[in-house]
């Protein structure tokens, strides 16, 4: 079958391409098996960890033999040399850069480094390129066990951080009016996210829309008190006071 270029996407529906051809497994158990291996390319995953992920509640009687069968089918789809057997488990022979998660993290780190150098336009581009790798909720369509479920949540947290840093870079680059519509949509979708609300309040204030900024703060404060019983963060309260003092 050959050993063409293999690429795997986890930032959305799991997608597997060999020389551009779709090789995504269709069997439900093969998807989480491949996903676990793809989260650690080039590193062995222990058999017990794979068993727990594929059968979190009730494993079949001869589970190791069943797992070997799944690995055999996975090899047929990817190419035999791709999935290696080690003394403790199985490993996917693949450079991390060919898995979109690792490409995303590399771009995110590039953005952080450019931010530190105060290259805000360059940082914003790097963060946008990182976010463009996402095509939906991570690992959608995969029956995730405990490890993959936690991994997907961690990726969503990373995505929120990247998005926040991208907006910070754009604010630092002077894109205030251009961000108002985006931030309004994001705060509507995330009504309790104080970070996003703080960014919206700041860009409104910098655009001279002080009353809108104050109203946005008051709306957030009312929701926080009503739903969580807490006041906004000290940073947001300080931002509010500075708006009132102008």
UniProtKB/TrEMBL annotation:
<feature type="domain" description="OmpR/PhoB-type">
    <location>
        <begin position="1"/>
        <end position="94"/>
    </location>
</feature>
<keyword id="KW-0238">DNA-binding</keyword>
<protein>
    <submittedName>
        <fullName>BTAD domain-containing putative transcriptional regulator</fullName>
    </submittedName>
</protein>
<dbReference type="InterPro" id="IPR005158">
    <property type="entry name" value="BTAD"/>
</dbReference>
<keyword id="KW-0804">Transcription</keyword>
<dbReference type="InterPro" id="IPR051677">
    <property type="entry name" value="AfsR-DnrI-RedD_regulator"/>
</dbReference>
<dbReference type="Pfam" id="PF00486">
    <property type="entry name" value="Trans_reg_C"/>
</dbReference>
<comment type="similarity">
    <text>Belongs to the AfsR/DnrI/RedD regulatory family.</text>
</comment>
<dbReference type="InterPro" id="IPR016032">
    <property type="entry name" value="Sig_transdc_resp-reg_C-effctor"/>
</dbReference>
<feature type="DNA-binding region" description="OmpR/PhoB-type">
    <location>
        <begin position="1"/>
        <end position="94"/>
    </location>
</feature>
<dbReference type="InterPro" id="IPR001867">
    <property type="entry name" value="OmpR/PhoB-type_DNA-bd"/>
</dbReference>
<dbReference type="Pfam" id="PF03704">
    <property type="entry name" value="BTAD"/>
</dbReference>
<keyword id="KW-0805">Transcription regulation</keyword>
<dbReference type="InterPro" id="IPR036388">
    <property type="entry name" value="WH-like_DNA-bd_sf"/>
</dbReference>
<dbReference type="InterPro" id="IPR011990">
    <property type="entry name" value="TPR-like_helical_dom_sf"/>
</dbReference>
């Amino acid at each position: 079958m050959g050993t063409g270029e293999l690429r795997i996407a986890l930032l959305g529906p799991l997608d597997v391409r060999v020389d551009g051809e779709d090789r995504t497994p269709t069997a439900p158990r093969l998807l989480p098996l491949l996903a676990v291996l793809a989260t650690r390319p080039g590193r062995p995953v222990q058999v017990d960890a794979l068993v727990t992920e594929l059968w979190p509640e009730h494993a079949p009687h001869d589970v190791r033999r069943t797992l070997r069968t799944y690995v055999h089918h996975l090899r047929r789809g990817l190419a035999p040399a791709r999935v290696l057997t080690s003394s403790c488990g199985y490993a996917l022979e693949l450079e991390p850069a060919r898995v979109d998660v690792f490409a995303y993290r590399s771009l995110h780190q590039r953005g952080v480094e450019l931010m530190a150098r105060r290259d805000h336009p360059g940082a914003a581009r790097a963060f946008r390129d990182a976010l463009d790798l996402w095509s939906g909720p991570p690992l959608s369509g995969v029956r995730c066990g405990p490890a993959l479920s936690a991994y997907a949540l961690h990726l969503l947290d990373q995505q929120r951080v990247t998005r926040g840093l991208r907006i910070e870079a754009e604010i630092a680059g002077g894109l205030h009016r251009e961000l108002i519509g985006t931030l309004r949509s994001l705060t509507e979708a995330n009504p309790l996210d104080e970070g996003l609300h703080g960014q919206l309040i700041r860009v409104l204030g910098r655009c001279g829309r002080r009353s809108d900024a104050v109203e946005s703060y008051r709306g957030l404060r009312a929701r926080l008190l009503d739903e969580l019983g807490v006041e906004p963060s000290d940073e947001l309260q300080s931002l509010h006071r500075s708006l009132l003092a102008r």
